[in-house]
Design brief:
The protein has one domain: Immunoglobulin-like, CATH 2.60.40. The chain has 1 helix and 9 strands; from the N terminus they run αβββββββββ. The strands form 2 sheets. Strands 3, 4, 6, 7 and 9 form a 5-stranded mixed beta sheet that branches. A hairpin with a 2-residue loop joins β6 and β7. It is globular and about 40 Å long.
Length: 150
């Protein structure tokens, strides 16, 4: 009995240490394609949602490129949602992209840059890995590989 208690105790110590180490790690701003609304036969509005979790993000700016599945460049656009997490409110925000290309469910969206004010400091969300993509159909979202960054 004593040996199993000791093993359990040491397991809890390891978990507590891991928890303390991870407590200081940065949270990520989550981003996903929420849906697309057809405005006309040739024009659509794609809505992107942002989730700040418990963090505060101000002046979020995301630059993106829309490509087809073969990699051909179709459009360049920017997303600028409202500030999030201010005073513990506004956890979620949205931004839209209006384009004929947004109507195409085969479009791949590549986020080239993402910046924000985080805790009062200008932050590159891609370089600090603070932008996380949630998978949601139909648009495919991607972060750039290191060689694709400007």
């Amino acid at each position: 009995m004593r040996a199993s208690f000791h093993a359990l105790s040491s397991t809890w110590r390891c978990l507590a240490i891991a928890g303390l180490c991870s407590a200081g790690s940065a949270q990520a701003l989550e981003l996903w394609h929420y849906g697309t609304l057809r405005l006309s036969p040739q024009r659509c509005e794609a809505t992107f949602m942002f989730d700040a979790g418990r963090a505060t993000y101000r002046e979020v700016r995301v630059q993106a490129i829309a490509k087809d599945r073969q990699g051909q460049h179709l459009a360049r656009f920017a997303l600028a949602p409202d500030d999030m997490g201010v005073d513990g409110r506004n956890r979620f925000a949205s931004a839209t992209w209006i384009s004929p290309h947004a109507c195409n469910p085969e479009v791949v969206v590549l986020f080239k840059t993402a910046t924000a004010q985080v805790d009062g400091m200008a932050t590159d969300l891609l370089a600090t890995q603070q932008l996380r993509l949630r998978r949601h159909e139909p648009l495919e979202l991607r972060l750039p590989q290191s060689r694709e960054r400007p």
